Amino acid sequence: MTDPMNDTELHALNRKLLAYLRAAAERRPLRRRCGSFLATFDADPNIYLNYAMPDDDADPSPSDVAALIALFAAQGRKPRLEYIPSAAPKVEAALLAAGFAVEARPPVMLCTPDKVVSAPPTRDIEVFLATEEADLIAVDEAQAEAYGAAPRGPGSNRRTLRAGGLVAAARDRASGAIVGGGVAMPPVAGISEIAGIGVYSSHRRRGAAGVLTALLAREAFARGFELLWLTPGGEDAQRIYARAGFAAKSEALHISR
């Protein structure tokens, strides 16, 4: 981690991030409360769209975890959680005892208005905020290809815009085609997640991901957002986000059964 916080500051931050995850889940149309867990589901079986998170300081019993597993089974989904473990430190042991296995512990990277870096434009790629239907469709298609998923249509990006979030697009200067995109999710108490940064495989390593992230951060802060966070998919992504002003401060947990 860089710029370490003291224990009190870090604990307060982790609770804010877990509260953000729950508030974001509450906005989704299909969600279920199960004891000290909140689960959110999607018509798309993609595991990253179907997961749960615990309450602060949750201390689930074996029967609580069994009920959560049954809830996912009833939805035809793999039992899975994404959360900030230090805000609910007793949950992981309860999950492991019930047969869950850790998928990943990605760093949580943060950016504040004073840290954002304006990435220089690239020769091949230009970026802009997308609002037109055709652009939202093209962004969705680029994100789907980048993450190895089927396109979901522009509905999710439209909802993001309606709720106060941002959608960014990357366009190839030569062809005029949109080749990537990403979002700043609608803020909760001034906090927003940068998510879905994806670029067609044919246009990677040209700086698109970096300028997309920098544009979203700059525009989000211009609109009054106070804190941005994200979880990188790997070391290469972490370096890209660091160049845009994001720094690793905490850790998330992805765990499934």
What does this structure look like?
- The chain folds into two domains: 7-108, Aminopeptidase (3-Layer(aba) Sandwich), CATH 3.40.630.30; 113-225, Gcn5-related N-acetyltransferase (GNAT) (Aminopeptidase, 3-Layer(aba) Sandwich), CATH 3.40.630.30.
- The strands form three sheets. The chain has a seven-stranded mixed sheet, with helices on both faces.
- The protein has helices at 7-26, 62-74, 91-97, 133-147, 155-162, 208-222, 235-243; strands at 31-34, 37-40, 51-54, 80-83, 101-104, 107-111, 125-129, 166-172, 178-184, 191-199, 227-230, 247-251, 253-256.
- It is globular.
- The protein is α+β, with helices and mostly antiparallel strands and 257 residues long.
- It is built from seven helices and 13 strands.
